[in-house]
Design goal:
The protein is α+β, with helices and mostly antiparallel strands and 248 residues long. It folds into two domains: 101 residues, Bordetella uptake gene, domain 1 (D-Maltodextrin-Binding Protein, domain 2); 124 residues, 3-Layer(aba) Sandwich (D-Maltodextrin-Binding Protein, domain 2), CATH 3.40.190.10. The protein is 38% helix and 21% strand. It has eight helices and eight strands, in the order E-H-E-H-E-H-E-H-E-H-E-E-H-H-E-H. Strands 1, 2, 3, 4, 5, 6, 7 and 8 form an eight-stranded mixed beta sheet that branches. Strand 3, helix 3 and strand 4 form a beta-alpha-beta unit. Helix 1 packs across helix 8. The longest helix is centred in the C-terminal third of the chain and has 21 residues. It is globular and about 60 Å long. The model has no long low-confidence stretch (mean pLDDT 94).
């Protein structure tokens, strides 16, 4: 959209961490992470590894041991194909197990709803998913989370008992950030206006309530700070993409 209206200060475009992962893999053709003006990050969710409540896997160690013994013995489902965010989460687990991610039995599904259906139906044994998508099934007792890919346990009553991967000895953090950007030729004045507006919005109690309703966690960042964050994330994703054979 911004390619057609690069100077339009009234055109905001939504992005997520998936957009940054696609940039790292060159999926936007000639456009790279410097092709837009990164404006604001407004919230985040986190990746997670889910199993049925009666699964023999009680923690990440159990899963990693099973993968080490026989990578093809565990059917893992997630949203998107090879190279997607959910696939990258499984690839990081495979890396921790010391195996090639391509050796995994991976089933590409449409998203959180299909992952839950496949998991509860016994068609897959592990779901690489998003914590927000999983919570209804966690609260019903049908599913468990082996780990959430956050820096620390999430400060929500129903989530405080879900362990992180890091506390289990696996240095895996996978935020799913949401935000907005502007076209590359938007004026400094328009950009500054939007930045100030988002700074005020992100600091408001009204927005915090709205963010919570959308099952997102705090992640507020704007302007140059966000630009630095985005470019570091893309660089880090490129390293992983090369390591996993997704790009040259």
């Amino acid at each position: 959209m911004v390619a057609q209206r690069p100077a339009d200060g009234g055109t905001l475009v939504a992005w997520s961490s998936g957009s940054l992962l696609n940039l790292a893999q060159g999926k936007f053709g000639r456009f790279d992470e410097s092709a837009v003006r990164w404006l604001a990050a407004v919230g985040t969710s986190y990746g997670a590894i889910a199993v049925k409540s009666d699964s023999p896997y009680k923690n990440l160690d159990d899963l990693v041991k099973a993968l080490k013994k026989n990578p093809g013995s565990v059917v893992i489902g997630s949203g998107g194909t090879v190279g997607s965010q959910d696939w990258m989460q499984t690839a990081l687990i495979a890396k921790a197990a010391g195996i090639n991610p391509r050796e995994l039995r991976y089933v590409a599904l449409e998203g959180g709803g299909e992952i839950a259906t496949a998991l509860l139906g016994g068609h897959i044994q592990v779901g690489s998913t998003d914590i927000s998508d999983s919570m209804p099934h966690i609260l019903s007792g049908d599913m468990r989370l082996l780990a959430v890919f956050a820096e620390e346990r999430l400060d929500e009553p129903e989530m405080k008992n879900i362990p992180t991967a890091k506390e289990q000895g696996y240095d895996i953090v996978w935020p799913v950030v949401r935000g907005f950007y502007l076209g590359p030729k938007v004026s400094d004045a328009d950009y500054a206006w939007w930045k100030e507006a988002f700074d005020k919005l992100l600091a408001s109690e009204e927005f915090a309530k709205l963010r919570d309703q959308r099952e997102l966690f705090p992640f507020a960042m704007t302007g140059p700070e966000l630009d630095t964050y985005v470019k570091k994330q893309v660089a880090d994703y490129k390293v992983l993409a090369k390591e996993f054979g997704l790009i040259q």
